[in-house]
Amino acid sequence: MAKIVHVEALMIDLVPQVKRVDAIQSFVSQETPIVRITDADGAVGTGYSYTIGTGGPSVMMLIEKTLAPALIGRDAGQIEGIWRDLLFLTHATTVGAITAIAQAAIDTALWDLKCRKASLPLHIMAGGAQEKIRLYSTEGGWLHLERGALVEDALRQKEAGFGGAKLKVGRPIHEDVARIGAVRDAVGPGFEIFTDANQAFAVDEAIRRARHYEPLDIGWLEEPLPADDIEGHARLARSTTIPVAVGESLYSALHFRDYLQRGACSVVQVDVGRIGGITPWLKVAHLAECFNVAVCPHFLMELHVALCAAVPNARWVEYIPQLDTLTTEGMTIRDGHAVPSAAPGLGIAWDWAAIEKQTVAGSRFAVTA
After folding, report:
1. Is pLDDT of 16 > 90?
2. With CB atoms counted within 10 Å of each terminal CB, which end of the chain scores lower, N or C?
């Protein structure tokens, strides 16, 4: 492939379409760095990542001052080599969220460029294992919503053909149980109910809560403990029949290795925007496959649909609309399944006029050969 001659980036600050509250925080904005990489043939690849309202300017500064200049003159097709070189270039700030989010924006742009030059969609270029992935919804399960709203949303998702819904937990135990139970009674046994604690519990509380949740037949307990407490997750996993799900707050493939080796999780929720891009995402997915563990990624449905279709062990795509105001068409949904785009590249139809209008003032920059 041709050498990289131009890198430009900007940031959008998206306001969530619905109020989002979990056990530890409220989502007030979504900073979205967007990177475009141009090679000497004039081909362009677009990538992106995100924060949940803090750190976006730091991500942009790292790209502008350190990562983007290091791309100029590199062969755009050597994605693995570039990813590793950028990792070591930022060795003093890895493993960490800011660096991983910055790398993700660049790595996804390089994959988009490679796919476009090959005239292939990402799900085929990266593996082509599945044609569609089941959907579950999170948008109607936030912690501030009352029981009736949870039931109404779950029934609506079931009617739409979705296979499940996720409920946030972290209220007093009896309230969590009543909320989950109301949804279970409404949707019946054939619809998955997932739960998400967003790292809110200590080990003893997580074990106790899992015992109360078990009779409700939930699909998984997500992020029950702080993400760096691998031993705590292992203790919890040994004490409950509920699958333990982790991954959205892990920033290294080696962290996933430790979880899997110690039996500390049984669902991997690797997030392409937080693990550092498509390159490490695929490694984690295949690592999980070797442990016979399913991949059910966190967030970024518009990008994860293609990655899930690329690997054989992906089971669910999480429905949280993110890019509606930045694209000309949304993710394809058919019979409760997410279907990857057949268009070359990531499969995201960017609306550049809308992006221009929503760009944060002062965030745009460019680096040229």
Report:
1. no
2. C
